[in-house]
Amino acid sequence: MLDAERDRWAVVGVDDAQELTAAGQRLIDLLAGGGHALVLAGDPDVATLTFRGALPQTVAGAAERFRRADGGPARTVVLGTAHRYGPLLRAVADRVAARIGSAGTVAHRAGPGATHRSGAAHRADPVGPGEVPGPATPGAQPERSGAGEEVAVHVRASTAQEGAFVATWLRRRHLEQGVPWSRMAVVVRSARATRSLRRALGSAGVPVTVPGVEIAVRDEPAVLPLRLALRCCLDPEQLTAETAVALLSGPFGGVDAVALRRLRQALRAQELAGDGDRTSDALLVEALADPGHLATLDPRVAARARHVAALLQAGRRAADAPGATAETVLWALWEAAGVAEAWQRRALAGGQSGARADRDLDAVVALFDAAARHTDRLPHAGPGDFLGYLEGQELPSDTLAARAPDGEAVTLLTAAGAAGREWDAVAVPGVQEGTWPDLRLRNSLLGGQALADLLDGRVGDGADIVGGPGGPGGPGGSGRAAVSAQRRAVLDDELRLFHVAVSRARRALLVTAVRSEEELPSSFLDLVDPLPADADERPLSAVPRAMTLPSLIAELRGVAADTGEPSGRRHRAARHLAELARAGVPGADPGDWYGLAPLSSIEPLRAEDEPVRVSPSKVEQFTRCALRWLLETSGGSPGSSSSQLLGTLVHEIAERAPNGTRAELAALLADRIDRLGLGEGWVDDRERQRLRSWSTSSPST
Q1: The pTM is what?
Q2: Contact indicator for 465, 450 with CB cutoff of 8 Å
Q3: How many Å apart are CA 51 and CA 596, to the nearest integer?
Q4: Between 352 and 564, the higher pLDDT residue
């Protein structure tokens, strides 16, 4: 507590008072109770943390709770001027706010003297505490643009089209209106939507930043191979076929599906030449554990595998060294990986690849920072202790490690994260029925939300929420009233989140939704842009061409190659393509177009003396589509399922013992089940048990 001398001049300031919980109110009582100087500011219509116990009605009751020194109510000042936006965007915010339960006061909403920047006034009739006001201007149709403001509502046919449209809208404002990327934002209902939107915006050339890392360091794509390699270095038994494939196909191995298949075939051929019969899974594990097994293979096939094997060797040597720590082993793995300079070059080059390299380098730096802090706290802990600590992290941890600056990028965040911030242009996608608003009752197994509703006065007595004769499932009407009150409270919370989302824009606002067989637009769209009385639904918006170089080049190529186009238009398109090609833009030079490049190789697929294996199914496939047969037999087929592998194994056993008895064939199959490459875990154990039981009871092939 402040001493008596300081109490005479100390002032306690509280912003966003609508987010205060009961504990926060008690803290302010201790700091500024008894008439001490207190400035408390808030807006109950923008509360976003009610699910965590925030009390929006705190603002309405603040004058009575925090009284002056003479015992009278504290002074209340309503700020009526909106400095963020003009009349068009203010009207959108007013329509949404008018649907929210009053939380004890509506004096802060539009009224006499309430103005926006240009000085025009708005006022809806005030309502009493607890009442739900109607629309401020029923049936009003807002202007779509004016005085430098813009409000747009669009409905698309799919989420992919929606993401592409949002990206085009952002790029148009950046390229045509000069709005910096950092002055634009995309606000979504929940964090689940950020991943897909981040991919859609990134693929369209829109730089995106997501405030706050939302995944643990252990799950970062760049950290995962280091974690797997560290585990294999500390315990050789952890190097399984699944781990080997993950290391080879990860960023340190860089092996694609075709190259991995060729490596498996080369190892298998080497094994058969030595009269061995081990599976390619076992041979992969052996090759990474001992690079000597790769010495006789074609360097073009085994180069990446040798690199991964050398990486594991370096990690094992560091782990076996006296005084080894997590830092020393990880540093040995990172140096052996040899990707630091390549990632740095990509990061400095910019673009989508540079953004990914930035994130990967940030993740690796965060990993080393976590290892250093773990070693400092536990000097005697070994690398295995840090690995257990790392793999036990379920939530992202705070880090002081240096990160690449976000620079000019569009902010992608949730409505709760957008509270208290503003941008020149804001897009609000994904306003779907069932998603926004999400009217499911927030409750838990122990009824924590119901208890909070009771304490907040949202329901009557305890019988209304815990069941019994008057409970939600009982014959009385009080249970239904309680459920209705809870649903109204949930709707108010959803409206508050939506109000926050649409009130963040200073100049332009875009709200989008999807209408398809599975999804419908939310009724919240009508609050942003009310439908005319004679309209049943919003039409699907046309799909504009993306404002990116690849889409421009595609359009120019289409015009230049279309003989049906006028010759003048074709010549202009060809001239533009030539200018772009001279500037080095990928895809503009006809030499890069599909079908015009020379063959990469004219060598035969097989040597003259190499046998070609033929099966009835392959012959049938060749007659249906010779090209597909060629591609799949050359390594372009997906991985085989356990059922396919089992069928292949049965054919092999029948070939080895064509006259075998039922018991002999079943025994051969049971002995070879482990060759199917089933992993660990109860699912694979169950499949293995099923195959063994089937092999002992199946009839002879």
Answers
A1: 0.61
A2: yes
A3: 60
A4: 564
